[in-house]
C-alpha cells in the first residue's frame, strides 16, 4: 500500500528524490544529512512523514527548504508499520529513479488516498535570491495590511464588550476551553498564545492536556465534560490530533453551540448554504475577511482565488467569500495551471501550506494578497536559525499587489482575535445578551 502511494506521489510530483520517514521528529538528523546531498545535486525532493507533523523540527525543516530545492508536505497517515521507515533516502537522478520504477507516468491521481502535494516549484531559484534584485521596484503605494494592529483593535473591542457582559450578568465572563492531545511544541505555543489573549480581554480559559497515547474515548469524554460545563462557552480541540484518533468523531462531539472553531459539520454545512447562518465561522477564514473589510477592500463582485482546499482554511474561506458576493476559484495541488488562474484574481487567499509557493508572476498587478501560510525556513542570520514565512514570496508579490499581508503579523494574530470574538458571541447567546 505504502509503496503504491509513494510511487504515485513521485510520479505526480516529478521528483528526483523521495524521503520517507515515520516521523520528522524522530529521524530529523538522518533526514538533514540526506538533504544535504539533495541540496548539492539541485534535485527536486519531497519528504513524507507518517505523522501529520508539518513544521516542528528546526533540524529538518530548514534543510528541506534550503535553497528551495525541496517542497514538502506531510500527507495523511498511512499504514503504520514498525520502525521509522527511511527506505528511500536515495539521492538519485531522474533516470536512475525511472530505472528503479519511479516512472513519470503522468497518470491522473485521484481518490481519497491522493496526497496533497504541490508540484509547481518550476522556478528553482530561491525566492530569497531574487528578493534583493526586485526590492528596488516596490510600488510605494502598496498597502501593508497590518494584521497585528487590526487584531489589537479587535481585542480592545472584545475587552470592552466582555466588561459590559460582566456588568450585566453580575460578574459572569465568557469561557474558552482548549483540548490539547500530545506534546507538540508548536501546538503548545499556539495554546499558550490563545490563553494569553483570553487573559488580555477578560475571557476565562480552561486547558486540558491529554497524553499523546490517549484513546479517542478519553478525548471525547473531555469534550463532553466541557459540553456540560456552563462556564465554558467555547471548546477548541487543537488540531491536528494524533493519527489514532478519529478527528471527525471528536469534532462532531463538540456541542454545536460551543463550536468556536466552526468545524462542526452543522456549522460548516450552514456556511455552505445560501440564507443560512452558521453559529460560528472558522477563525482563520473569518480573520481573512475581517482584514479585507477593515482595510476597506471591496469583496462584492470581485474574482477571488483561494489556493488550498483544507477543511480549516481553504474550503471555508471559499464559501465565506461567496457569502460576500465574490466569484471564487479554488486552486489546489491538482490544478495544472495555478499561476495562470491566480493571475486573474482581484483577491488572492493563499492557504496551501507551502513556503513561497506563490511567486510574483502569480499575482495580477493591483491584486490584494492575503497570506495564510505559516512555514519555517532556514535563516542563518536569524537568532534561532530559522524564520517564519508565508505561502507567498512576499518580496516578489509586493511589487505587484495593491495590498498584502505580511507573515508574521498578518493572518496569524487575526485567527486568535476571531477566536475571542466567537467565544464572546457564544457567551452572549448563552446569557441572552443582545448586541447593543
Ligand atoms: N482547533 C484548532 N484551531 C486553530 O485555530 C488552530 C489549530 N487547531 N491548530 C493550529 C493552527 C495554527 N493557528 C495559529 C494561530 C495563531 C498564529 C499566530 O498568531 N501567528 C503569529 C506569530 C507566531 C510566531 O511568531 O511564532 C503571526 O503570524 O504573526 C499562528 C497559528 C491556529 N490553529
Automatic annotation (TrEMBL):
Q: Which GO terms describe its cellular component?
A: cytosol
- Kindly give the CDD domains that the UniProt entry links to this protein: NAD_bind_m-THF_DH_Cyclohyd
Q: Name one GO molecular function term.
A: methenyltetrahydrofolate cyclohydrolase activity
BP GO annotations: photorespiration; tetrahydrofolate interconversion
Q: Does the keyword NADP apply?
A: yes
Q: Which reactions appear under catalytic activity for this entry?
A: (6R)-5,10-methylene-5,6,7,8-tetrahydrofolate + NADP(+) = (6R)-5,10-methenyltetrahydrofolate + NADPH; (6R)-5,10-methenyltetrahydrofolate + H2O = (6R)-10-formyltetrahydrofolate + H(+)
Q: Which InterPro entries has this protein been placed in?
A: Aminoacid_DH-like_N_sf, NAD(P)-bd_dom_sf, THF_DH/CycHdrlase, THF_DH/CycHdrlase_cat_dom, THF_DH/CycHdrlase_CS, THF_DH/CycHdrlase_NAD-bd_dom
Q: Which UniProt keywords apply?
A: Hydrolase, Multifunctional enzyme, NADP, One-carbon metabolism, Oxidoreductase, Photorespiration
Q: In which pathway does it act?
A: One-carbon metabolism; tetrahydrofolate interconversion
Q: Which residues form the Tetrahydrofolate dehydrogenase/cyclohydrolase catalytic domain?
A: 145-261
Domain called Tetrahydrofolate dehydrogenase/cyclohydrolase NAD(P)-binding: residue spans: 282-430
Describe the subunit structure.
Answer: Homodimer.
- What is the stated purpose of this protein? Catalyzes the oxidation of 5,10-methylenetetrahydrofolate to 5,10-methenyltetrahydrofolate and then the hydrolysis of 5,10-methenyltetrahydrofolate to 10-formyltetrahydrofolate.
Similarity-based family: Belongs to the tetrahydrofolate dehydrogenase/cyclohydrolase family.
Which PANTHER family is this protein grouped with?
C-1-TETRAHYDROFOLATE SYNTHASE, CYTOPLASMIC, C-1-TETRAHYDROFOLATE SYNTHASE, CYTOPLASMIC-RELATED
Name this protein carries in UniProt: Methenyltetrahydrofolate cyclohydrolase
Q: Which organism is it from?
A: Ceratopteris richardii (Triangle waterfern)
Amino acid at each position: 500500500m505504502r509503496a503504491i502511494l509513494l510511487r504515485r506521489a513521485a510520479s505526480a510530483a516529478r521528483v528526483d528524490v523521495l524521503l520517507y520517514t515515520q516521523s520528522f521528529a524522530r529521524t530529523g538528523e538522518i533526514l538533514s544529512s540526506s538533504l544535504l546531498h539533495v541540496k548539492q545535486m539541485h534535485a527536486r525532493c519531497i519528504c513524507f512523514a507518517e505523522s501529520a507533523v508539518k513544521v516542528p523540527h528546526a533540524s529538518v525543516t530548514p534543510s528541506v527548504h534550503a535553497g528551495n530545492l525541496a517542497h514538502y508536505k506531510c500527507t495523511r497517515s498511512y499504514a503504520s508499520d514498525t520502525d521509522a521507515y527511511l527506505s528511500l533516502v536515495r539521492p538519485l537522478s531522474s533516470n536512475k529513479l525511472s530505472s528503479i520504477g519511479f516512472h513519470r507516468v503522468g497518470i491522473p491521481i485521484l481518490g481519497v488516498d491522493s496526497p496533497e502535494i504541490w508540484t509547481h516549484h518550476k522556478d528553482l531559484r530561491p525566492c530569497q535570491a531574487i528578493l534583493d534584485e526586485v526590492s528596488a521596484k516596490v510600488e510605494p503605494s502598496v498597502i501593508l495590511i497590518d494584521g497585528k494592529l487590526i487584531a489589537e483593535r479587535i481585542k480592545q473591542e472584545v475587552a470592552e464588550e466582555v466588561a459590559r457582559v460582566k456588568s450585566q450578568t453580575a460578574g459572569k465572563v465568557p469561557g474558552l476551553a482548549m483540548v490539547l492531545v500530545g506534546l507538540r511544541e508548536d501546538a503548545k505555543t499556539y495554546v499558550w498564545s490563545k490563553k494569553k489573549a483570553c487573559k488580555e480581554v477578560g475571557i476565562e480559559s480552561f486547558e486540558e492536556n491529554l497524553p499523546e497515547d490517549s484513546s479517542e474515548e478519553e478525548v471525547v469524554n473531555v469534550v463532553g465534560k466541557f459540553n456540560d460545563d456552563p462556564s465554558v462557552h467555547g471548546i477548541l480541540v487543537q488540531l491536528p490530533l494524533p493519527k489514532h484518533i478519529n478527528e471527525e468523531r471528536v469534532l462532531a462531539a463538540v456541542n454545536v453551540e460551543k463550536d468556536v472553531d466552526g468545524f462542526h459539520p452543522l456549522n460548516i454545512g450552514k456556511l455552505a448554504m445560501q440564507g443560512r447562518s452558521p453559529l460560528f465561522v472558522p477563525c482563520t477564514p473569518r480573520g481573512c475577511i475581517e482584514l479585507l473589510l477593515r482595510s476597506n477592500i471591496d469583496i462584492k463582485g470581485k474574482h477571488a482565488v483561494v489556493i488550498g482546499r483544507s477543511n480549516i482554511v481553504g474550503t471555508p474561506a471559499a464559501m465565506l467569500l461567496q457569502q460576500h458576493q465574490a466569484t471564487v476559484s479554488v486552486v489546489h495541488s491538482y490544478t495544472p495551471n495555478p499561476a495562470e488562474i491566480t493571475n486573474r484574481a482581484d483577491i488572492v487567499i493563499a492557504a496551501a501550506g507551502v513556503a513561497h509557493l506563490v511567486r510574483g508572476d502569480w499575482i495580477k498587478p493591483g491584486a490584494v494578497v492575503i497570506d495564510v501560510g505559516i512555514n519555517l525556513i532556514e535563516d542563518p542570520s536569524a537568532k534561532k536559525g530559522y524564520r517564519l514565512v508565508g505561502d507567498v514570496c512576499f518580496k516578489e508579490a509586493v511589487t505587484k499587489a495593491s495590498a498584502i499581508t505580511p507573515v508574521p503579523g498578518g493572518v496569524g494574530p487575526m485567527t486568535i482575535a476571531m477566536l475571542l470574538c466567537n467565544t464572546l458571541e457564544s457567551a452572549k447567546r448563552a446569557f441572552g445578551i443582545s448586541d447593543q
